[in-house]
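debug: dumping io for the single-chain case to check the tokenizer round-trip. Nothing else runs in this session.
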Amino acid sequence: MKTLSPTMARQNLTKWLDDAIQGKAVGITHKGHVIKLQPIQVVEDWAAEEYGLDAEELDRIAVKLVQSGEEAIRKGKARPIKELLAKYAR
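debug: decoded output
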């Protein structure tokens, strides 16, 4: 496990988050503990607990997010993810 102080982690946080997403073990020390960075799957139960939303509300929000993203693409304020993936694919 790569263990970092908060200061060290802050200097390159995106890299450590990317490493954690890839399954690499990354921890940040805090008050004598090591806190592991680990992605979690967001599910409706979590959203309900975190935001007090039910399944219908989450569905409405998802539709609105898609609509706002499509509108931003039409207005040239955003680019489709497929286009970005094609451009930056490794």
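debug: round-trip ok. The longest helix spans residues 55-74.
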